[in-house]
Design a protein that fits this description.
30-stranded antiparallel β-sheet; mainly beta; 17-stranded antiparallel β-sheet
């Protein structure tokens, strides 16, 4: 009965051209099972059969057996397992005498071919879906028809594949493509008439290139494709373009060096037709579970001006980066990390966006910084030692600050009078808390051109600082928190300064002499204060059920001696040419400063306000169906009154606060300073309260900022995808390129394109105002900076996405750096178009790139600039 229903013919397979997943079998008809037996299982191992293991079979729908021929027919959800070989399909024929299996799908009532065979060959291979197959499970050989399999990010489809016991595959009428569809619609493919696929190579007979389904006049009588199972050195394909000032270009051509599994390197170079050139060496290293990092050395020789003229010349620039991260489990209690970035100030500006490693954030930055640090925790985690080297470079002013080393030792605070064997609550003296910290620093700040000049290292300044805070906190009178503290600070210096006036033929000159030798400077202060919380409730107003106002006032008494008193020896004086007495600190140039001059004995005060409302919520059923809405958060006023000052006893009053609107979608922050005193005609503060002149206080500075997203789901989706990407990368071992891309996605909203979010529009605004005395107009003027930034995206279709980023500087009255990007998802390819319409870096670029990782250098890039010299 089974034979009559399923007439099997050894050569009855007719298949479409290479890789068609719609290939039809002449020997397969619609199956109508005779019985209704469900989930039939059979396990067979015949004596003398020579089989090395049992053949396990399962049929979810039904099973038919030809006892005389020892043949079984399995229908619907059929499975066969022999050793590492596993096969599932909607129809399987098992011939135990011949040790052969035939499997195929079936046609359902709608005429659709379903239940294709899924094969697992063992050896850690991924499952493969085929149209049909014959397999000799004893010899481990067989023919596979209409197969598709993934190879290093690309896909191989073939009409017939035969695999032998040596794990080698012979293919007939195959297609290598970047697309995983049965009929690749936008593929870069190679048609292979016949070929052999081994573990490390693909050997092909006649083959020809196909693009978008159109055969290209590129053919090979035979071909050899390496398929290494590990990284291998090789050629890095360049990109081509044209620059307005540097001419035609060939960028980032180079060679990849795979030394071993722990480190590799890229050597790249760029050439321009007008003589400019660039070179870089990018090296990465990693040791699993211990550390990873990499360094990048870049050099550029950029021709400027017109050849043959006086302004023709070269700009020579370099940039060096190094990053290193140690895994925490590698050496518990010890840490070492490095983030180094230094070079010439004009490197990114002169090279523009010509390098793949240059971003628009690099172009706009005006500072570079580095840090190399080592940390050690000991004494059961109570002592923390950190040593670091830091570097900060201001590219606008061309200055550099280098600190080598910075040492910090911190001891966790402890209660010296408490007992380990104490029973019950602490007594008041057992609450006394003591801490200790130590810092040491050796630093220099100079022009970048003078750092390595003769005597450059003699400009280093150094010092040590010890700090011992002692504090006590108690609950007083049930509703008050009592705090008292004593703070002692001591500084050690190897230099001190002296000032004097010299009478020279050209006039009086002020001199500053540096004296070598050990000096110590110390200061101390005492503070005692009280704080409490006051709660207020306002009655119901409309839909607002209640408003709660929490006020946190605090007051403290503080005292600090006058360390400019001659008995301390920290301050000296000299008389100028007019006979005026000038007092100065001999430690004014010290890196940790000097003890303060003037006695201070005053009252410090602050008041903090938090206001929130409770309203009914239809969506939130927690807390009785009510929702809390913050109205004002952290509105704080603070100041100090010095009783012993001879004038200007009240300090400026600072204030700050924050709030949120539209269900926490818009965050607003503000801060400022009020000066309670008036000023004279020269803009100098005088000992006269401003209220006597008709105003409560003078607003000297004010800042306001807010950010808002019209589609909060976009930010949430972006953060979730970044977290997922970070987990995926860390699981596979994140490479420096992946880490750099992830950092860019985290900082640049337009670096992440999510086609699942139909639109997003976000804005941020910042405003800063400060008062200054204008000597020309003899009055106080405002200095205002204000910027508005916009970024967003929208999907034209499910496959088209447009992103943009722009802003406006209200002070300069000009639009800031603006960019537009269009992305097109071509399934197995990506296309992007970027445009900067104006500014110094106005440009456009078009890129089409294959998604397959093995073909990531297979790309078409067009860049051009409209005259700014960058693109």
């Amino acid at each position: 009965m089974a034979q009559s229903n399923i007439p099997l013919k050894q050569n009855g397979l007719q298949s479409k051209d290479a890789g068609s997943a719609n290939s039809k079998l002449q020997d397969t008809t619609k199956i109508k099972p005779i019985d209704s037996t469900k989930s039939v299982q059979d396990t067979t191992k015949k004596k003398g059969s020579g089989l090395q293991a049992e053949v396990s079979i399962i049929a979810v729908d039904s099973q038919k057996s030809e006892v005389a021929k020892n043949i079984s027919h399995l229908y619907r959800g059929a499975k066969v397992k022999y050793q590492d070989f596993e096969l599932s399909a909607d129809y399987i024929r098992l011939d135990r005498n011949q040790k052969k299996i035939f499997a195929s799908g079936i046609y359902d009532k709608s005429g659709k071919y379903v239940g294709r065979p899924i094969v697992i060959m063992g050896n850690g291979e991924s499952p493969k879906t085929v149209d049909s197959l014959y397999y000799d499970y004893e010899k481990q050989e067989g023919n596979t028809y209409g197969i598709m399999t993934e190879v290093d990010g690309g896909f191989i489809q073939a009409n017939i594949v035969r695999k032998n016991i040596y794990d080698e595959m012979s293919i007939y009428k195959g297609l290598y493509s970047t697309c995983n569809l049965p009929q690749p619609h936008t593929h870069f493919g190679i048609h292979i008439s016949k070929g052999i696929v081994t573990k490390n190579q693909i050997i092909s007979g006649p083959a020809y290139l196909v693009v978008m389904g159109v055969p290209m006049p590129v053919a090979f009588p035979f071909a050899f494709f390496p398929k290494p199972d590990k990284r291998a050195s090789g050629f890095l394909f360049p990109s081509f373009g044209e620059d307005y000032t540097r001419g035609f270009s060939m960028r980032d051509i180079g060679w990849y060096l795979a030394f071993n599994d722990y480190w590799d390197s890229e050597i790249r170079g760029s050439l321009y037709s007008k003589g400019s050139w660039e070179a870089s060496v990018n090296t990465r290293y990693t040791v699993n579970y211990k550390y990873n990092g990499g360094f990048n050395i870049r050099y550029a020789n950029t021709k400027v001006g017109v050849e043959g003229t006086d302004n023709y010349g070269s700009n020579k620039d370099f940039n060096v980066t190094w990053n290193h991260t140690q895994r925490q489990e590698a050496n518990p209690g010890t840490s070492f990390s490095a983030s180094v970035n230094f070079g010439t100030a004009s490197y990114f500006q002169n090279t523009g966006t010509g390098s793949n490693q240059t971003t628009y954030q690099n172009l706009a930055q005006n500072r570079m910084g580095s840090s190399i640090s080592y940390g050690k925790v000991f004494a059961d985690g109570k002592v923390n030692l950190t040593a670091s080297l830091t570097h900060s470079q201001d590219m606008a002013n061309r200055t550099i600050q280098l600190s080598l080393p910075n040492i910090s030792l911190n001891v966790s605070s402890f209660n010296p009078f408490d007992s380990k064997d104490r029973v019950g609550e602490q007594k008041w003296y057992q609450r006394i808390n003591v801490g200790y910290s130590f810092q040491a620093q050796n630093t220099v700040s100079t022009a970048d051109s003078l750092l390595f000049s003769s005597g450059g290292f003699k400009r280093f300044q150094n010092g040590f600082q010890h700090n011992i805070p002692v504090s006590l906190s108690l609950n007083a009178f049930k509703y008050f928190q009592f705090n008292t503290s004593v703070n002692y600070t001591e500084r050690w210096y190897f230099q001190s300064t002296r000032q004097r006036i010299d009478n020279t033929p050209s006039g009086y000159r002020q001199r500053l002499d540096t004296l070598q030798g050990f000096n110590r400077a110390y200061d101390y202060s005492v503070s005692t204060g009280l704080s409490t919380k006051i709660y207020g409730m306002y009655p119901k107003i409309g839909k607002i059920q209640a408003i709660r106002h929490v006020v946190t006032p605090s007051i403290n008494l503080n005292y600090r001696p006058d360390f400019s008193d001659p008995r301390y020896g920290f301050y000296q004086h000299y008389n100028d040419q007019y006979g005026n007495r000038n007092v100065y600190s001999i430690f004014a140039q010290g890196i940790y400063g000097s003890p303060s001059a003037g006695k201070s004995a005053g009252i410090g005060f602050s008041i903090d306000n938090n206001i929130e409302a409770k309203v009914k919520s239809k969506s939130d059923t927690t807390d009785g169906g009510f929702k809390k809405i913050p109205i004002l958060q952290g509105l704080t006023f603070s100041g100090n009154y010095n009783f012993v000052a001879d004038s200007l006893k009240l300090s400026p009053i600072t204030f700050s606060g924050r709030t949120a609107f539209f269900d926490q979608k818009m965050n607003v922050n503000f801060n400022g300073t009020f000066d309670p005193y008036s000023i004279d005609n020269n803009g100098v503060r005088i000992n006269r309260y401003a209220i006597k002149d008709g105003s409560l206080a003078r607003l000297t500075n004010f800042g306001l900022s807010f950010d808002y997203s019209l589609n909060p789901k976009a930010a949430k989706s972006r953060n979730n995808n970044i977290d997922s990407l970070r987990k995926e990368m860390s699981g596979a071992g994140m490479t420096p390129e992946q880490a750099q891309a992830l950092a860019r996605i985290s900082s640049d909203p337009n670096a992440f394109v999510d086609f699942n979010i139909p639109w997003n529009l976000a804005a941020s605004f910042s405003f800063n105002m400060s008062k200054f005395f204008n000597s020309s107009t003899r009055r106080m003027d405002n200095q205002i900076t204000s910027t508005l930034n916009l970024h967003g995206d929208f999907s034209v279709t499910p496959k088209w996405k447009v992103t943009f980023q722009s802003g406006y500087d209200f002070k300069q009255k000009e639009v800031v750096m603006t960019s537009f990007n269009i992305y097109r998802d071509l399934h197995c390819w990506d296309m992007s178009f970027g445009w900067m319409p104006f500014g110094r870096y106005r440009s456009y670029n078009v890129t089409i790139r294959a998604k397959a990782s093995i073909l990531q250098d297979l790309k078409l890039t067009k860049r051009a600039s409209s005259g700014g010299g960058y693109f």
